[in-house]
Amino acid sequence: PPEFKQRLVAASCEPGVSISKLALENGINANLLFKWRQGKLQLPASPGVDPPSYFR
User: Fold this and answer.
1) Domain tally for the chain?
2) What is the C-alpha separation between 5 and 50, in angstroms, rounded?
3) Domain membership flag for residue 28
4) Structural domain includes residue 52
5) Alpha-carbon span 30 to 36, nearest angstrom
6) What whole-number distance in Å separates Cα of residue 37 and Cα of residue 40?
7) Could you report the per-residue pLDDT of 1-47, keeping only the tens digit for each?
8) Which has the closest alpha carbon to 33: 45, 54, 41?
9) In a domain, 54, yes or no
10) Exposure winner among 25, 33, 37, 49, fewest CB in 10 A?
């Protein structure tokens, strides 16, 4: 459910939280939680500004 996903993404953004441990405690793969976070934390690109090289 979307609420589950939103709750885990929000919890994973808290300081000191282990994403791997959070995923394990909730019965999902850590890679899936990382993917959910990536989708949630993407910011719209600013015109004329290149993203840092590690995002390319």
Assistant:
1) 1
2) 30
3) yes
4) no
5) 10
6) 5
7) 789 999 999 999 999 999 999 999 999 999 999 999 998 876 555 56
8) 41
9) no
10) 49
